[in-house]
Structure formats: C-alpha cells, structure tokens
C-alpha cells in the first residue's frame, strides 16, 4: 500500500520506517527540513535503540522516502497517518491540537478521492469527529474518511512495540476503512496480535485511559511509599508482594521519583480537562490526585536530600546521576531528575549532572546546571549523590571506587534500583524513598 506519515518526530519516524519494513511504500512528511534531511541521510534525530537499523533497512529497500510537500503527499498516498505532537496547552491542562489541525488543513486540498486519514497522535475524545467535519468542509468532493489508530509504543522499545504490539486498536467510521486497516497491518496481525475494531471515540479514549491507568498505578505505589516512610515499612517488599497477585501485576509498581516524559503527565491532564468540558469531571477527578502524588515525589526527594546534607543546601555539592525522564532515552521532557536537580540548585547547592545519553538535551533545557561527561567527574567532592534515572550504567558503578572520589559517601536512590547492601558494604550511607534506612 502507499502510505504517508505526517510528522517525523519520535512516533512518526518509527512508524514510517516500520511500515516500510513490513512492505509498504511510505512517504514521510515534515515541515522541518533539517529533520527530514537527517532521516534521509540515515541519521535518527533522537536516541532510540534499534531504530537506526530499521531506518537504514527501509531506506535501502527504496520503500521509504521523505518530503516537505503536503501536495506531493496528497498525490502519493492512499492512507495518510497523522503522527504530530499534541503537547499540553500553555496555561491550561487541555491538549494543544494545533499541529493536528495544521496537517489536516495542509493535506485536505491535495487528497485523492477515497483517501483515508488515520490519526495516531494522542488526542482528546471527539477529535476524529471534529476532524471529519473539518475535512468535509475543506475538501467536499474528496470523499475522505477519518479513522483513529492510537499508538502504545514506549520510548526505548519503539521498534519492538510497533512491530510486535500487545494490541492494535482502530476506530473506524466505515467498513471500507476497517478493511483497509486490516490489510495494512496484515503482516503484524499474522502473529496473532489482537485487532480491536471500534468507533473513533472509543479508540481515542483507549489511549488516554491506558496512559492514565499506568500513571495511577505508579502514583498508587508512591502513595504507599509515603505510608511506608511514616511507619518504617518497606515499599519494595510491599510492591513485590502485591505484584504476585496476577490481578495486580508487578509491572509499573516501581516506587520512587515518579513519572515524567512527554506522555503520561500531559495525558492524565488532558483526560481530566476533556472530562471537565464534557461535564463528567467527577468521574475522573481522582486523576488530579494521581498528578499531585506524582509531583509530590519530586519535593520529597529534595527534602530528603536536604536532610541528608545537614538541613541546608547552601555551600553543598550534589552529584545527580541521570537526566533523561527514564533510562534508554535521551528525552528530557518533564524529566523528574532535571526538575529535582533544578530545585536543589535553586536551594543554594552546586549541582553537577551526569547522563549517559541525554546531556545535550539536558543542557538545552537547563543551561544553568553544571554537567559532567562521566560519573567520576560529576561526583568529585560531592556531599551527596542522587540516583534519579535508573540507567543500567549506574547499577554497574563500583561503590568502593566512587567512595574515594566524593567528599561524603552518602547516596539517595530515588529510583529504588541500586543494590544498597553493596553500597553500604563499601562504606556508604544509603537512603531510598519508602524504605527503612537499612533496607
Ligand atoms: C508511555 C506508555 O508506557 C506507552 O504505552 C505510550 O505509548 C507512551 O507513553 C505514549 O503515550 O506515547 P513512555 O512515556 O515512553 O511510554 O514511558 P514509560 O515507560 O511509560 O514511563 C513513563 C514514566 O513513568 C517514566 O518517567 C518512568 O520512569 C516512570 N515509571 C514507570 C515509574 O516511575 N514507575 C514505574 O513502575 C514505571
């Protein structure tokens, strides 16, 4: 099939390369000439394990090309995917749909008759039906159809999640669109992936609900961590015990600094904002609590850090391990690690941050922080080490060697991911959120 993919950011670039990889002719479209040039030159503009190989394979097959021209895309494709960003609106909790609308406006005049537009971006429920009206007004003779096909890929596992998803959800308005989507994904469906065909509103909501549920699970265990701190109980043992029940499951019950990134925080807010617009806000008002519990973990980490350096940050040197919002990613959008680093710096400490891959993005986001290219340099003469993003790299640190570099061997593991017994036996004082001092 001949597909176009509008938006070659994280979601679009991976989707375009994977669709070419399974045999489709794909044209990636973006307004950003530089991004297009990078991709066409086989250079991913972001860090994602395994993506470059897929990109190179797709380009070499001749099935993946790029353009900045919506007219060329309209002429080329039978199916047009919308993969642009839907960030949080400035000054409110709602989603900013201006990029989605810009794609629709640019594409509509060039649509060939019978074209199918498929949204993949995460949007508030009701967006597909609004876009359908918009396209019919802009291109009344095109007989275009609109479907929604949310994406569930995780950064760090994007290629794997696209080619071997847990489910494919499509919200369609016609039998023709349903058939097109089944044909398009046939190579993926062959391995038995569940195909859920529904209406666009349900499809839009599945995505928002999935991310909100994941966020709620994390905030639940972090609320329990707060209770553990007040009672001397151990949240890690609690999470393990809860997770043994298959109805609960252990995944996404990792307590600590909480969630960040470009998806979970904005999606819980967008869902509650949309629910408020629809007059059903009481049904999801607990999402405000999910958000509040999550944000509170950042201040809890700052407060514990202050306590560990004797009650004041003034004149203290703090090493921060991790800048990305999670490991295996160079994404620093709403990064809990950088937020904590900035708060501690504002409190008067000298903060030096290390990350294995996200340093460049972190420098752009927080130019006032100090950065180091290796762990030893970041930790030199530190009064406290904070472990804020659980890269595998940090699990391999030799605590005895690092003890000779810092001023005071004290570590706060805000991700509950280090073997603290090992650190203690190398002479470190250790602390973690939700755990007794000697856990
Ligand atoms: C999330 C969803 O997991 C994907 O299914 C979805 O497609 C994606 O958003 C999206 O909407 O595009 P992602 O943002 O890549 O994926 O990251 P996650 O792996 O979900 O992690 C989110 C945050 O939660 C990270 O900051 C992570 O450190 C934190 N987290 C995760 C915890 O604090 N505890 C956990 O147990 C799990």
Automatic annotation (TrEMBL):
Reactions the enzyme catalyzes: UDP-alpha-D-glucose + 2 NAD(+) + H2O = UDP-alpha-D-glucuronate + 2 NADH + 3 H(+)
EC number: 1.1.1.22
Gene Ontology molecular functions: oxidoreductase activity
Protein's UniProt keywords contain Oxidoreductase: yes
Keyword Aminoacyl-tRNA synthetase: no
Pfam families: UDPG_MGDP_dh, UDPG_MGDP_dh_C, UDPG_MGDP_dh_N
Keyword terms of this UniProt record: NAD, Oxidoreductase
Listed pathway(s): Nucleotide-sugar biosynthesis; UDP-alpha-D-glucuronate biosynthesis; UDP-alpha-D-glucuronate from UDP-alpha-D-glucose: step 1/1
UDP-glucose/GDP-mannose dehydrogenase C-terminal domain ranges (all copies): 319-420
Family note: Belongs to the UDP-glucose/GDP-mannose dehydrogenase family.
Protein name: UDP-glucose 6-dehydrogenase
Organism of provenance: Streptomyces massasporeus
């Amino acid at each position: 099939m001949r597909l176009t993919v509008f938006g070659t950011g994280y979601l679009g670039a991976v989707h375009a390369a994977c669709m070419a990889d399974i045999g489709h002719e794909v044209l990636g479209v973006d307004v950003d000439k530089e991004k297009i040039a990078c991709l066409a030159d086989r250079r991913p503009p972001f860090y994602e394990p395994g993506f470059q190989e897929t990109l190179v394979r797709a380009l070499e097959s001749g099935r993946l090309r790029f353009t900045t021209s919506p007219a060329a895309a309209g002429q080329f494709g039978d199916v047009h995917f919308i993969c642009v960003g839907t960030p949080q609106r400035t000054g409110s909790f709602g989603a900013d749909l201006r990029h989605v609308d810009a794609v629709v406006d640019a594409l509509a005049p060039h649509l060939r008759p019978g074209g199918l537009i498929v949204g993949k971006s995460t949007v508030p429920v009701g967006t597909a039906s609004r876009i359908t009206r918009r396209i019919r007004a802009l291109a009344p003779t095109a007989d275009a159809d609109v479907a929604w096909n949310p994406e569930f890929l995780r950064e760090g596992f994007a290629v794997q999640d696209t080619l071997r998803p847990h489910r494919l959800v499509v919200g369609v308005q016609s039998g023709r669109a349903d058939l097109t989507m089944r044909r398009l994904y046939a190579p993926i469906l062959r391995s038995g992936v569940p195909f859920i065909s529904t209406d666009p509103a349900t499809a839009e909501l599945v995505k928002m609900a999935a991310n909100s549920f994941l966020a709620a699970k994390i905030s639940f265990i972090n609320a329990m961590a707060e209770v553990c701190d007040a009672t001397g109980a151990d949240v890690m043992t609690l999470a393990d015990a809860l997770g043994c029940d298959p109805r609960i499951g252990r995944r996404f019950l990792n307590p600590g600094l909480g969630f960040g990134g470009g998806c979970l925080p904005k999606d819980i807010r967008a869902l509650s904002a949309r629910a408020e617009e629809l007059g059903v806000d009481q049904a999801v008002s607990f999402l405000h609590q999910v958000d509040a519990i999550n944000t509170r973990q950042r201040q809890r980490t700052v407060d514990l850090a202050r306590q560990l350096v004797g009650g004041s940050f003034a004149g203290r040197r703090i090493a921060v391990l991790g800048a990305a919002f999670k490991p295996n990613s160079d994404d620093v959008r709403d990064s809990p690690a950088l937020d904590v680093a900035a708060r501690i710096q504002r409190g008067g400490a000298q903060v030096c941050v290390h990350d294995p891959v996200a340093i460049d993005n972190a420098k752009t986001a927080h130019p006032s922080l100090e950065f180091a290219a290796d762990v030893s340099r970041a930790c030199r003469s530190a009064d406290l080490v904070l472990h804020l993003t659980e890269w595998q790299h940090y699990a391999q640190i030799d605590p005895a060697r690092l003890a000779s570099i810092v001023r005071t061997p004290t570590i706060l593991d805000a991700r509950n991911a280090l073997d603290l017994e090992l650190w203690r036996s190398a002479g470190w004082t250790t602390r973690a959120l939700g755990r007794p001092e000697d856990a």
